[in-house]
């Protein structure tokens, strides 16, 4: 009897579940070897001055190209990598590659002030992050001011014992620290006062709706107000239209990134983009 029930329930939920698990297993198996097999690359999205379009920094965004799985955006694999722990190796690779590329650009005379790198929660545990950042900067002869780290509100909320020390060490290296997708997840207002943070990235979730959606307008105003009163810098994410640019600029947001200016670009295209900006 129990056997039959077991088999029935097995039949009831198997097809999707088995497929999902198989897929997950495949993904994780490939993910484990991806750094070693050199399957990742970075694209770079310009962060521009909202009043004149000048490139002030760039954000490195990871891409994964796997023979059997195809080309994947981070939303498909970063969470898995966080769960399995592979994110630590991947994150180390990203940091290294972004610094290497910035060094190469500087050596060919391209003036790019800063590259922003996304850092996941797991990378904040332990001492490795600050050590790795220090080592990468030293290896490529870059000052701390050449690097910005973007982390999510989860880092603030979980309040791991090492977080404050890690932030402090990063700050001592001269690295900028900002909170990505601000306002999306949790309310981290309390932590804003406690930690040495430089800036907030206004989530594209709210940028999308301005200037027409009144509640999105209200959130953008509130976040801008918080940033201003705490003396934090601000970058608006996901700027797609001229009307959004004008609205944000009038709100006092100085820097934005989004498809209105450029998507994430391959290194050569980013170089061309910066050169073209200069000639304007
Ligand atoms: P994010 O850091 O908030 O990056 C912004 C995402 O929005 C990027 O997606 C970018 O391509 C996209 N985007 C930029 N402008 C626009 C726009 O105008 N409209 C719209 N609709 N989207 C825009 P992407 O590259 O797929 O990255 C997704 C997320 O994956 C990132 O969000 C970040 O949280 C994470 N991620 C990316 N690279 C890394 C990495 O190297 N390490 C870690 N830990 N996470 C990463
Ligand atoms: Mg980011
Ligand atoms: Mg973001
Ligand atoms: Mg995001």
UniProtKB/TrEMBL annotation:
<protein>
    <submittedName>
        <fullName>Diguanylate cyclase/phosphodiesterase (GGDEF &amp; EAL domains) with PAS/PAC sensor(S)</fullName>
    </submittedName>
</protein>
<feature type="domain" description="EAL">
    <location>
        <begin position="24"/>
        <end position="278"/>
    </location>
</feature>
């Amino acid at each position: 009897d129990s056997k039959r029930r077991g088999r029935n329930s097995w039949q009831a939920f198997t097809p999707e579940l088995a497929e999902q698990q198989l897929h997950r297993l495949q993904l994780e198996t490939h993910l484990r070897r991806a750094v070693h097999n050199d399957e990742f690359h970075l694209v770079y999205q310009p962060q521009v001055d909202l009043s004149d379009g000048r490139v002030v920094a760039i954000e490195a965004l990871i891409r994964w190209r796997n023979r059997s799985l195809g080309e994947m955006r981070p939303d498909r694999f970063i969470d898995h990598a966080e769960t399995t722990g592979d994110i630590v190796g991947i994150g180390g690779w990203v940091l290294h590659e972004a610094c290497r590329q910035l060094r190469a650009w500087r050596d060919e005379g391209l003036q790019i002030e800063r590259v922003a790198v996304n850092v996941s929660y797991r990378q904040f545990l332990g001492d490795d992050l600050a050590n790795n950042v220090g080592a990468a900067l030293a290896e490529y002869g870059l000052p701390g001011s050449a690097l910005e780290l973007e982390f999510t509100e989860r880092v603030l909320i979980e309040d791991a014992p090492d977080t404050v020390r890690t932030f402090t060490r990063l700050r001592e290296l001269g690295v900028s620290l900002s909170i990505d997708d601000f306002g999306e997840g949790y309310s981290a207002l309390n932590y804003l006062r406690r930690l040495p943070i430089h800036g907030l990235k206004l989530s594209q979730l709210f940028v999308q709706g301005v200037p027409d959606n009144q509640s999105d307008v209200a959130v953008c105003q509130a976040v801008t107000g918080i940033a201003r009163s705490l003396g934090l810098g601000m970058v608006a994410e996901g700027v797609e239209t001229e009307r959004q640019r004008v609205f944000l600029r009038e709100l006092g947001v100085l820097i934005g990134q989004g498809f209105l200016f450029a998507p994430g670009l391959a290194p050569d295209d980013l170089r061309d983009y910066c050169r073209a900006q200069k000639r304007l």
